[in-house]
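Chain X:
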Amino acid sequence: MSFDRLAPHYRWLERVTAGGVLQRARIAHLASLDTAENILLVGEGPGRFLTALRARRPDVPITVLDASARMLDMARDTAVGPTTFQQLDLTEESLPPGSWDAVVSHCFLDCFASAKLERVSANLAQATTPKADWLITDFAMPAAGWQRARARFAHALMYRTFRIAANLEARRWTDPSYLLSAQGFELHRRTPFNHGLIRADHWRRA
């Protein structure tokens, strides 16, 4: 899986396909990071959330991880303050344990099939402190009704497109909630967007 080919087009693709909805979802629980002392951003992409976070927390140390070198370059162009950038594949390399008290993984976990999703989520969880916060914005699947039918169509189109453009292994969305619960996180707040097609979660380790 590589988003290098998509990197130059990512911003306008997001504007065309989602308008401002994804960014509103990304920052829905931004205030929950106000007390974090060391923040990890995973799969940040071109840096839209990083910019919003920096406006609110100009001096907090932030680490940005991405497997795509071109995405990292784009995020680096937006960076101010104490920010570290690292190219890393979380399915292959382990993070240092207990290093961050907040993790942000927007539009990231929905890229993985279940086996690798389990590995990635465990890798991220062990890298957090005992009372860490975790913000997640992803595409999701509503429970029933026309919203679910609409989401099924959108998911099929999205996953097919990204399989071609980015060699995405996932064929469908896997809800990561059970994996976060298994790692000691509890859902603190969930905010749906676009009739449940997108959801913004704030998880907190009890």
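Chain Y:
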Amino acid sequence: MIKKLILAVLALIVFAAPVGAVLAQEETPAVGPIYIIQAGDSLSSIATRFNISLQTLMEANQISDANAISAGARLVIPGLEGISGILETNILGFGETLQNISRRNQVSNKILARINRITSPSELYAGVGVVVPHAEDSQPLNKRMTIPAQASLLEAAILAESDPWTITSLNNLPGTWSPLPGDVFYAPGASQPDQPAPNGMPSAFAQVEIGPLPMVQGQTTKIIIQTQPGVTLTGMLVDMPLRFFALEENRYAALQGVHAMLTPGAYPLQLQASLPDGSQQAFEQMIIVQTGYYPEEVLLVEPETIDPATTETEMAQILALTSPVSTQKLWEGMFSSPSYYNDCFTSRYGNRRTYLGAGTDEKYYSFHSGLDFCGGEGLPITAPANGVVVFAGPLAIRGNATIIDHGWGIFSGIWHQSEIKVTTGQTVTAGEVIGAVGGTGRVTGAHLHWEVWVNGIQVNPFDWLGNTYP
């Protein structure tokens, strides 16, 4: 009897051990760096980004439903041997380089290239997300320093309240002899407001601020540059020449619209600096432009209003009126709504529109170039900002129209009015009545259409109601 009992116990141990081992294995959490899910991410896109299968990612995180994720949640990324901590997504700023990101975050170039699957430095487009690993509670270095011409690392390190050996170690340099003048390095401690920007740009561009990044169809791009003394700036964004205006000594601003129909992708931003001695410095980097996710609309209109002979002639007239650039900035702060109903809209900017000619097979595909406000015939229209009227009269498509020059290449267009109450050449102030709501031109009913032009491009007027430019 005792012998049988011992055999039974041994049998239980033999058969139970593998089951226990399997359970323990299933309950053991996966080990690896943690990725913070970003808005717009999917498990499939995350798996592709880190070059692993969707099944592997789901199994590592014990996920049964690929759609059951949310922004801010944490995922273990398997297969990244030798990498630990939090995988944080940083938006790459204009002028930033792989070397700059490496030094600031104390991560080797090799690891950054491996995580982000970078095969060439030219792939680092401004506005793209770069995954950077760091310890849970660590912070990137932000005290920047450069070595002036004819100065030594010792002198620069002392000015940064550090020493050559600490700077060499923090920036992963081969030796104290290796730093080059003008390059950007990092030192321990807090940054100072007047320190150079963390980028790999030529010395003429002391500070560069570009926003928003990534760029979006229909947005207004703001470029602020602090230069060395005596520098003259020019540039191009996509295919539009940039116009820089002085904000204060050695600090300049350019505002440029991104076309609502521009195909999403990477486009060049070129900056050129002419120095007092006649020499030139330039920098170019590709910038990401994202879709604005604009919806589709279909409108039935009179056939003559979509005749190319009419639409193209009138657009050429509008372009001619909005091309001259005044060097005087006339507006102050944010624009104000030109409508009595300032928070009620019948159609938003950017909507893709198919116009159908009533009773014909004629079609015209375009986009909604402004913001349509609620409100009926005769309601007052006010100037959205200070400016000078450069056109006030009837147009075939836009009806009774008023165009206001606000300076610096910024214009407002007010279309479809029942009555125009200003004249060409008149100076207007923000809030002044300039017309009345109507239904003239290509419309389906009386409304106020307001659009904003920024250096030759129609942009989303709503941005100008909530942001201060520059």
